[in-house]
Each structure stands twice: as C-alpha cells, then as structure tokens.
Amino acid sequence: MQLTFHDVNMNEIELATKLDAEEISQLYKIVWTPYRESFPEPLMDNRIPDAGQVSASMDDNEYYVIRENGMITSVVRCQFPHGTCHLDRMVVHPDHRGKGMGKDLTKFIIDLARERRASKVWLDTTPTLESAVKLYESMGFKEVGFFKGHYWGQDIKFYELILK
Q1: What is the pLDDT of residues 40-64, one digit of tens each?
Q2: Separation of alpha carbons 56 and 97, rounded Å
Q3: Where does residue 89 fall: left (phi above 0), alpha (psi -120 to 50 degrees), or beta otherwise?
Q4: Could you tell me what percent of the chain has a pLDDT over 90?
Q5: Maximum Cα–Cα distance across the chain
Q6: Please, are residues 76 and 90 in contact by the beta-carbon 8 Å criterion?
Q7: Helices (H) and strands (E) in the chain, counts
Q8: Angle CA(144)–CA(135)–CA(48) in degrees, nearest 5?
Q9: What is the pLDDT of residues 125-140, one digit of tens each?
C-alpha cells in the first residue's frame, strides 16, 4: 500500500520503500558531492549513504519523497524517539530547487508529528547551509543550541518547533 499526500504547493509526498533506496542514495550523492571540498571526509561519507545503508536505515526511520516525472527529486528522513519527531537528511535535487519542495516536506513532517502527538519537531544543521537555516527559521523553528566543532569538526545549530 502506497501512502500519498498533497500539500499546498501540490507537491505529492509519499512514503518511500526499500525499492527506492538506490535512487535516494543517488540523490544524496548528487546533492552532497559538490560539498566534498568544504566538509571533512567522514561527514561526507555520512551524508552520502549507499543504497544498502539507506535500506537498512528504513528499518528504524521513515523516508518521504517527492517525485517529478517518476524521479525522486527530494527526500526527508524522520523518526519519532521519546515522543518527539527528529527531522533529518532532507535534500532537494539542485535542478528542482525553488519549487517549494523543502518547505512542503518540512510542513508535511510537522503535520505528521502533530498527528502522532509528538511534543516537538527537532533537527540540526550546519550554519554554512544558509538556505536550510532560512527555511527552518521561516517555518517557526527556534535555535535552541549550538555545538562548536560537533560533527567531525563542524559547527552545528540545533532547532526545535514546539507543537501545541
């Protein structure tokens, strides 16, 4: 059974399956490879999982995707630990940016968290990803922490959105 959802921008969001793992892995590679020179190698290896790693991650996480013309153009991963929702691994294919996909996926995860009665949605990002920071702040996320040199020497901002 395939779950499909629509958002205000009419980007169709669906729950990914293990059959999508290879395509999701390739999308991560497309998005993150240009950053290879900017970030430490262990961080890049973490951000570019192979299909087997994506598939294994699906045992404990949910991946939601948007497709255009049958191709996965954006993805987000989430999990629901301890009555909260952790949003991570969101990327949008460079050729498909500016279409509201990141905003739609974020809003979808917020709505899903509310539906599942999570107390908040939380995430982390590096301050150098300015478009991600701007998106999260525009959607009401508040910075609640900053770790200097946290992930392989990279600074990390922590954000949360308290759900009412």
Answers
A1: 898 888 899 999 999 999 999 999 9
A2: 28
A3: left
A4: 80
A5: 43
A6: yes
A7: 5, 8
A8: 90
A9: 999 899 999 999 999 9
The amino acid sitting at 24 is I
Residue in 24, 27, 4 with CA at minimum distance from that of residue 14: 4
User: In whole angstroms, what is the distance from residue 115 CA to residue 50 CA?
Assistant: 31
Amino acid at 149: G
Q: Which domains does the chain have, with CATH numbers?
A: 4-123 (3.40.630.30)
Amino acid sitting at position 110:
I
Instruction: Write down how long the chain is.
Output: 164
Predicted confidence at residue 150, as pLDDT, reads: 85
Alpha helices in 4-153 (DSSP H): 21-32, 41-47, 51-57, 101-115, 130-138
pLDDT at residue number 11: 81
Does the predicted TM-score (pTM) go above 0.85?
A: yes
Report d(CA 66, CA 54) in Å as an integer: 17
